[in-house]
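Researcher: Sequence recovery benchmark, item below. Answer with residues only.
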């Protein structure tokens, strides 16, 4: 995985922007997803925000196309990605855990870092937002066996025929 790191606290304080691109190959957990997204590319940008409650904040945008496989027919499937998520960053796990859910609003609360791994961040957001079972709206009908294939199948000996000779009378 690519080692792109940013200081999310500095990004927030300076209201800066960081951006880049990742291919599906640079995000290996996507290949383990049910859609097995192994091709495509996403562009990301993180823009620092004021946050709330004296916490650093950022908005992560992810745009692109990922190519995986349909869970019904197995054929290639392209998923357009358009994500925008707002984050608040705490300095410790205990600080994040102590924040009541009712107070985090629309923001995702995560533990930030001065060496925040962007590839993991993007990959986790994609895994949370991609369809659980990616499928075409309409899959093409499966191909039925031809007459020749059916004849070959009928001509094969039954592997269980030998068992009939072992049967006691």
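Model:
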């Amino acid at each position: 995985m690519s080692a792109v790191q940013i200081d999310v606290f500095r990004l927030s304080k300076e209201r800066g922007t960081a951006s880049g691109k990742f291919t599906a190959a640079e995000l290996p957990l996507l290949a383990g997803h049910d859609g097995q997204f192994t091709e495509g590319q996403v562009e990301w940008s993180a823009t620092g925000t004021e946050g709330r409650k004296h916490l650093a904040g950022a908005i992560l945008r992810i745009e692109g196309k990922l190519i995986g496989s349909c869970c019904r027919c197995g054929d290639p499937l392209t998923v357009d990605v358009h994500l925008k998520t707002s984050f608040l960053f705490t300095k410790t796990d205990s600080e994040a855990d102590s924040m009541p859910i009712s107070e985090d609003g629309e923001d995702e609360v995560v533990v930030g870092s001065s060496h925040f791994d962007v590839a993991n961040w993007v990959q986790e957001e994609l895994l949370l937002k991609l369809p659980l079972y990616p499928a075409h709206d309409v899959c093409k009908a499966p191909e039925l066996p031809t007459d020749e294939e059916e004849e070959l199948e009928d001509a094969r000996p039954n592997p269980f025929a030998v068992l009939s000779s072992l049967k006691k009378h």
